Amino acid sequence: MLVACGQPAAAELLRRYRLGPDVSGRASQRLSQAADSRRTKISRSTERFFDRRMRYRKLRTRLKGSISSYLHAVESKYGYFLPYRISESRNDEFFRLVRDLTSDERVRSAVVIGAAADQYSTQAFLAGILENPTRPAAHCIEFLGHSASVPTRRASDTGVDWHQLSPCSTELKKVIEKIRREGNIHSFDLLLIDGSELDKLAPDILPREELDGAKSVILDDTDRLSVHKRYDRLSRDSRYFQAAYNPTLRNGYAIFKRFDVRVSSSSDADIDGLGLDPT
User: Fold this and answer.
1) Are strands 109-113 and 137-143 parallel, antiparallel or unpaired?
2) C-alpha–C-alpha distance, residues 267 and 211, integer Å
3) Which of 1, 36, 52, 55 has a CA 20 to 30 Å removed from the CA of 25?
């Protein structure tokens, strides 16, 4: 009658009451067992899912490591070719020093003359600038018509000013004067000169007075005429000491520091490891 009146739930309760508590209890037990079984199946399925994901990640990590090791071995044999962020060049003697020096928190102003987006020295310079907690004023001066590539303006280059010039020493002098004037810079904290971009330019492309007094000077490709002239001049300058020099690494490099710049950072410690601390 309850079912006919549209009360199936009430009819089921009455039926269970008439059958007694044992039947009702057995029904509840069966329902509980079914729920436990479903939970166990879901738990096992979840466990298998995460187990597969873990095995996949381990396999991917091993494959990535193997491929990376192979590519780095190829770079060691034939030269660097991978993007800087994944290249073995990050551990290169010279490029590591460039990055360490530019990331020094005492560096507040830095400039690259002969910058090029595809040059590892420029990329190491930019990486160090981005790691520098003081976010120094950084400038990359590139000579158009000489480099095969035009720098890509990336979000990671935020805070770095690019200056594209024709290969004219007069124009370079004006740009450096402008940078110093607008930034109220008496002398640059760090100066990087990349000779690979200056080799075919006039030997006197580098203005003397405008670059004079930089606290740290990094010379890349010291066997090239324009850079070697700067190397000779710094070697004779009593204000500087030669912090690092390796003429046999590619086209040679040298790092000069002013005597009045105190040695205290990790980058200086790396250089001191070469046994060239003047003190």
Assistant:
1) parallel
2) 22
3) 1
According to DSSP H, which parts of the chain are helical? 8-19, 21-78, 93-102, 120-131, 169-182, 225-236, 266-272
Which residues, given as ranges, of the chain have pLDDT below 50? 2-3, 23, 63, 146-156, 263-266, 269, 272-279
Summarised one tens digit per residue, pLDDT across range 133-167 is: 998 999 999 887 644 444 444 434 567 899 988 76
Q: Which two tokens stand for residue 74?
A: 């190829």
Asked whether the beta carbons of 89 and 95 are under 8 A apart, the reply is yes
Instruction: Report pLDDT for 273.
Output: 42
Which pair of tokens denotes residue 115?
A: 């910058």
Answer yes or no: pTM beyond 0.90.
Answer: no
Rama region for 132: left / alpha / beta (φ>0; ψ in -120 to 50; rest): beta
Yes or no: say if 219 and 227 are a contact pair by the CB < 8 Å rule: yes
Cα-based torsion angle of the residue sequence 243, 217, 214, 109 in order, rounded to the nearest 10 degrees: -120
Q: What angle do CA 62, 65, 69 make, to 5 degrees?
A: 140
| Backbone angle region of 104, left / alpha / beta, with phi > 0 → left and psi within -120 to 50 → alpha | beta
- Give the separation between CA 197 and CA 126, rounded to whole angstroms: 17
DSSP-derived 3-state class of residue 1: coil
Q: Tell me: the pLDDT tens digits for 97-124?
A: 999 999 999 999 999 998 988 888 999 9
Q: Are strands 190-194 and 253-258 parallel, antiparallel or unpaired?
A: unpaired
Smallest Cα–Cα separation from 88: which of 109, 102, 104, 71? 71
